Amino acid sequence: MKTNISKLISLSILIVVFSCSEDDDQSVQEPDSPIESIVYVAGLGFENSNFTAELWTDGLQTVLSNDNFNAEAIDMFIDGDDTYIAGYQTNNNDISVATIWKNGVPSTITDGTRASSISTVFVLNNIIYAVGFEANQNGINVAKLWENGVSSSLSDAVNEASATGLHVQDSDIYVVGRAYNGLDFDAVLWKNNVRIDLASSSATETAEDIFVSGSNVYITIEQDREKLFLWENGTTTLISDETISDGINPSSNDLFVSGSDLYGWSRLYN
Length: 270
Fold this sequence. Notes:
By secondary structure, this protein is mainly β. The protein has a domain at 80-263: 6 Propeller (Neuraminidase), CATH 2.120.10. The protein contains no helices and 22 strands. It has strands spanning 11-19, 35-47, 50-57, 60-63, 71-79, 82-90, 96-102, 105-108, 116-124, 127-135, 141-147, 150-153, 161-169, 172-180, 185-191, 194-197, 205-213, 216-223, 227-232, 235-240, 256-258, 261-263. The strands form six sheets. A four-stranded antiparallel beta sheet has the order 1-2-3-4, with no helix packed on it.
């Protein structure tokens, strides 16, 4: 039985900005130095009749995966000089295997016997956090959190679930995603592995992304692929009725929302 994941379009974009400064002992005030930036784009390519995980750095293409197998780059994180790309690649049995490419070198974090994939990667204090899903022996997708490759299950083994977003602050790990309730999917938050239901409706909902700043928690929730909501410390606000939000900045200088993406001072979410 063919088991894999395919998405026609998927891009994760991260812009790293830095400035050049002159010597501090200059007596004459110089104009502001030009700001330089590097644009990283990770996503899906097509090579040798297969989908490939790819990274573009200022337009320079790097194919991360073996083009004999399908693969996809879904998210990225840059920590100092290290670039982490997360997603999946299929194996000889055409099963998707959760994979992290660190500086272009792939590491699989599941054994490849059941389908798995990573949605988000986050690095803090030399710990690589990743979330996504892995199918169990009954073929049920289980929401997963990996810490340096060690997995923990966020959902039960009975109902379908997947994790889509992640933020780590101090000792707290925040994961968002969705879980099946018997009729449709609920948007959920797991804080330190404890589940919190974010919304209650007859619609299918997915918590797409999360950003945490101090005691403030911001989450985007997609409903029926038609509406996008912002969940802010327990209060839900409709920000788009077509899952497209152009430059909304809701009541916080720490957050920027564009599409279904959350931008904070320190992190770009996809």
